[in-house]
Design goal:
The chain has about 160 residues and is an alpha+beta fold. It is built from four helices and four strands. Helix 1 packs antiparallel against helix 2. The two termini are about 60 Å apart. About 15% of the residues are buried.
Length: about 160
């Protein structure tokens, strides 16, 4: 998938760089031709045949590079999104069973070790987390743990 998209983007980038280089060469040739002529009527052919097309090629090259880099970035984002969507856990059936099994009833209060909040057992922040443990009432009474703003557990503890 990646190589197919990148193959369509890289020629645009190469064309942009080639147009920039060709435009720079034409501008230098036009400048060199104009600088060698004293009269304006002899300078006009160099301006018309080298400098103006050179400037147009530089602008076209800049547009191609901008488009190519945008398309390259879009291709990479799409590839990463495809990998994210296509990624399935190795044991796809086990986590679903573990997440559906409640760790505690909704009346219990839980905390995550090292955390600063205490939660109801049905709070989405601790649901399915094996490391969640029952709340120590001493921590709540001392003020080290605060109530979760999402599940808003009652402050009445055992």
């Amino acid at each position: 998938m990646r190589t197919a998209r990148l193959r369509t983007v890289h020629p645009v980038l190469w064309a942009g760089w080639a147009a920039l280089a060709a435009g720079a060469v034409l501008c230098v040739l036009g400048w060199y031709g104009v600088s060698g002529e004293r009269y304006a009527e002899r300078q006009l052919p160099y301006l018309a045949s080298c400098t103006v097309p050179g400037a147009a090629l530089i602008i076209a090259g800049a547009v191609l590079l901008t488009h190519g880099r945008g398309a390259l970035a879009a291709a990479r984002v799409e590839e990463l999104y495809g990998l994210l969507v296509a990624a399935e856990p190795a044991d796809a059936e086990e986590p679903r069973q573990a997440a559906s099994a409640p760790l505690a009833v909704s009346g219990d209060l839980l905390m995550v070790p090292g955390g600063t909040l205490w939660h109801r057992a049905d709070c989405p922040l601790v649901t399915g987390k094996a490391e969640a443990v029952p709340v120590d009432s001493k921590l709540v009474a001392s003020g080290e743990l605060g109530p979760c703003p999402i599940c808003e557990p009652a402050e009445e503890t055992d």
